[in-house]
Amino acid sequence: MNESDFADVSDHSRRWWARGAFVLAVAAAVVPVLFAGVLGTVALLVVEIGGVVVTVASLYSFLTRRGVLRWITLGVAIATPVIVLAVFVRANLLWVVVLVYVLALAASVCARAALRRSRAETDMPEYPASPAKHPFVIMNPHSGGGKVAQFDLRRKAEALGADVALLEGPGTVDVTALARQAVEQGADLLGVAGGDGTQALVAAVAAEHDLPFLVISAGTRNHFAMDLGLDRSDPARSLDALRDGVELRVDLGAVDGRPFVNNVSFGVYAEIVRSPAYRDDKAATVLKLLPDLLTGHSGPRLVAHIGDTEVEEPQAVLVSNNAYGTSDVAGLSRRDRLDRGVLGVVTLSVANTRQAVDLLRRNNGRGLTQTTAREVTVDSDTPEIPVGVDGESLLLRTPVRCTVDPGALRVLVPRNRPGVRVSAPVLDWGRLWQTAFPS
Which of 108, 178, 315, 351 is deepest in the core (most CB within 10 A)? Predict the structure, then answer.
């Protein structure tokens, strides 16, 4: 059974899922005491917690150091769980540990089923859409490894009455000017088959002229298309919106006047994206730059102003067009809705092993801030800072201001589409208790 199967459970069912979660959690706590005794349980906890601390500390050292020591600490991180497992086997307690983990996993599944929001809470309202008479679509044939040609998107779009403009290569065409020219010539719909950065630029023109905007999932990651519930495996299905479509009214972010549909990043991630080697070898570039960035030897000093809150010297700031799931601090997951009228904000500060462990345990202390706001300003001790805007690297003058324009964009989507998967809820045991035993 999949967690998504629990998306629309009734209040009665939620109550029993919640009660089941508490029963399983209690069983997970009692089992080691029954079969290992109090002293054995304490020993299990000491070994397990010690293993976690050593592993996290080693991984943090791996990310922040260079040379031979980096690879030694990676070896320690890999060896520690093996040693912990061997200790459990030698003490004939491995089956107890496995049983506890199974019970804890089952409790987690029940808890998430009880707390998961319904489709009615997460689905964006749909509005009727009139067929476009003069749709204009910009296609980047190089995006997504050549998906425009692979899925024959140009021919299929033209067969549906769209005028198609192919981009010759990166930086050779001003897509904003191209979209504005199409509007002047009578286009009543603008669409893009390309990456999220190109999507954002054309979306801003569509919003400016109150025109429908068509998203064709032909980019590499297609995060915007994913959060609109489009089919990312077959971009041609996005064109079905021209025959039988509905409109979604979604928000549009802006950073110093430049539009974005997904997120804006500062600090560590923005510095990594800025590197010329990033696009050719992402993993190697990350490993090369992280030691200096995480230990504060490189990069500007940031100050984030989030509404009335000020966060000093975060190593990374992620500002998103609506908030990502609360379990996602990297902007790699999903946004349930794009019409909340807010920016999602995550700041990260990991200066030592303790803060790394706290971050792993999801302790929202100084190391992690996750909230929402209508406006975010990021300042620095330098006149310019690198900023990643929908994966594109820019150099912007400080302070950099991020805002959101609620409901600015009329997105045309197919009536029949995969839809947005409801994200997993945070395990809030207080809320779970109220669900299990309502007053």
Answer: 315
Q: Assign 146 to helix, strand or coil.
A: coil
* DSSP helix/strand/coil, 60: helix
Strand partners, 135: 189
Alpha-carbon distance 139 to 193, whole Å?
A: 5
pLDDT band at 190 (very low <50, low <70, confident <90, very high): very high
Amino acid residing at 326: T
Task: Categorise residue 152: left if φ over 0, alpha if ψ from -120 to 50, beta otherwise.
Answer: left
Count the residues in the chain. Answer: 439
Nearest to 334 by CA among 321, 347, 352: 321
pTM recorded for the entire structure: 0.73
The region, left, alpha or beta by phi > 0 then psi within -120 to 50, assigned to residue 418 is alpha
> Is 21 in contact with 32 (CB distance < 8 Å)?
no
pLDDT in tens, 153-189: 999 999 999 999 998 765 557 899 999 999 999 999 9
What does the alpha-carbon distance between residue 128 and residue 246 come to, in Å, rounded to a whole number? 5
Cα radius of gyration (the chain)? 25
Residue 2 CA to residue 397 CA, distance in Å, equals 47
Average pLDDT of 328-339?
Answer: 69
Burial of 31 from C-beta contacts in 10 A (0-12 / 13-18 / 19+): middle
Could you please report the per-residue DSSP string of 261-305?
Answer: SSEEEEEHHHHHHHSTTTTT-HHHHHHHHHHHHHTTSSS--EEEE
Helices and strands of the chain, counted as H and E runs? 13, 17
Q: Are 221 and 145 in contact (CB under 8 A)?
A: no
